[in-house]
TrEMBL record, chain A:
Source organism of this protein record: Arboricoccus pini
Protein name as annotated: Amino acid/amide ABC transporter membrane protein 1, HAAT family
Main location: membrane
Keyword Transmembrane annotated: yes
The family this protein is said to belong to: Belongs to the binding-protein-dependent transport system permease family. LivHM subfamily.
Domain of life of the organism encoding this protein: Bacteria
Automatic annotation (TrEMBL), chain B:
Chief localization: membrane
Subcellular location: Cell membrane
UniProt GO MF annotations: branched-chain amino acid transmembrane transporter activity
Membrane topology recorded in Swiss-Prot or TrEMBL: Multi-pass membrane protein
Species the sequence originates in: Arboricoccus pini
CDD domains in the cross-refs: TM_PBP1_LivM_like
GO cellular component entries: plasma membrane
InterPro entries: ABC_transp_permease, LivM-like
Name of the featured protein: Amino acid/amide ABC transporter membrane protein 2, HAAT family
Keywords: Cell membrane, Membrane, Transmembrane, Transmembrane helix
Signal peptide annotation: none
Amino acid sequence: MSLQFLADGLLAGLLIGLGAIGVTLTYAMLRFANFAHGEMMSFGAYVAWSASFLLSALAGTAWPAMGPFSITAAVLLGGLAAMILTAGLALLLDRLLFRHLAGRGEAITLVIASFGASMALRSLIEFAFSSSPLYFSSDLQIAVRLGMGIRVTPDQLALIGLTLCLLLAIHLLVTRTQAGRAMRAVAENPTLAAVVGLDVRRVVGLTWVMGGALAAAAGTMAGILVQIRPNMGFDFLLPLFSAAILGGIGSIPGAILGGIVIGLAEAACVQFVGAEWRAAVAFLILVLLLLLRPRGFFGEAA
Amino acid sequence: MSEAILSYGSFFLTTALAYAILCLGLNLQWGKTGLFNVGVAGFVGVGAYVSAILTTPWSSAHLGGFGLFWPLGWLAGAAATALMSLLVGALTLRLRQDYLAITTFGFAVAIQLVLLNLQPLTGGPFGIGFIPRPFESLADRPLLFGLGNLAIVATLVLVLYLALQNLSRSPWGRVLRAIREDETAALALGKNAARYRLQAFALGGGLMGLGGAIQAHFTGFIAPNNYLPNLTFQVWTMLIIGGSGSNRGAILGALFVWALWAATGGAITAFVPAELQARASALQIAAIGLGLCLVLLLRPGGLFGLRRHAARG
């Protein structure tokens, strides 16, 4: 039996986990499932692609690939631009839409609004870029054998490394800084956090920035790994939600762990059952979870 | 010429009224009970496929050959979807309310995959054709055919509207309203909130299944791509713009949004060069999404609701 699914699933799972961090934090703070979060991933991927395309155009020539990787410095810079702009998009959505509706105290209206925003964003992306897929690079990657039937491309290794760096940065941010601690406090109990004098609105804004930036990073990496499509983020939505619930709403390590579980399960399904059923895996895990342990691995009892 | 306009008019109204049935189902779940279903497309698809499989002639491409009379197919489609809703509801309604949104969303994704991949049952990506249409024998006389279809669907919408109005004034409807407005008070009065919710969810799902079956029998052909999340979104937009909580709003919202949709779609076909049409259609969806957000922000009671009635859960 080949263990290839472990390598594919781990990377896919880390990307799901990166995206799920934003979902789980805004869910915990604002009590709503943001259906537009997937579109932040797509938006990020398209920004990164456009920026790296522009950088190449400015340089007048394609940027050289770095070592064995297909990823160029232009793509990395593009990813950085994507994180910044997507954080801005998240803030903008909050300012224009979610904040007003949240003020009315009806959280579920936020979900409908996020549903509308998701459709609008996805269609605007399709309007701007058409529905044909885009690629960061057309280079072929030669896979390296790791033994036990596992083969990985240099890009996959680079992306796993980049993701681990990002996770370390988040870990330091939420455990070592005042802002990070405030974020965790608000995610755990918004009312109590307000009582002890935390500026909840500022913390929520910071969370949108972080969630948006991480979604953009995940979207860009998914784009490097496979391709960029207007629907790519929407297709991630169910895995994101499942990962967030699996890990327990409001828990960052839970989101990552949940993402890895979903990623591994999806990759196992592709390898052993068939790629056509992959999209159902997240739903099946979600249903099992709701039946057995609705509060997730790390969640508090509801 | 005027005959062409009339037959287009009846075709337009028939399509819009089929959407109105979906909206009435969603209104029962969301507007009347506060249950947030984001998997409308899945429920519609189940109703359509069940009815299509039961009524089509034998085919090697999918399960079928039962050749039932179409009204029986519609009934079976509605019943099967109601049962499905009962299962989904039983799983999720006892949990935090927003989990319902995520689970129904996943349910619709799973249903779409089943329709696409279980080829022996559903015909796979090629879908199911030769679905018997009411008044099939009149198919070569478009005007009569169109008016016949319209008469059926209009009568159904009227009957459903009156029944739902009655239902919301009945003791059952009053308990539903009480649960939606103040669950604790309803529980204190000894009402089993979970059971009422489940009933409303199943009944609403059944209406969606019926609407799906009706759509299938008017077009005569269905495929998995008809049941993508866009459909869910369309029905939601119709209900919110029409005014959730009001059955009249649900029907008017369906007519209004479908009219906008058809008009902008027609304008795109007529005025936009062929190579840009896909992009223009994307813009059409974006505009509807924007419209939904604007109505939520500016007029949460919808455009046609009887009174200001903020959507709530």
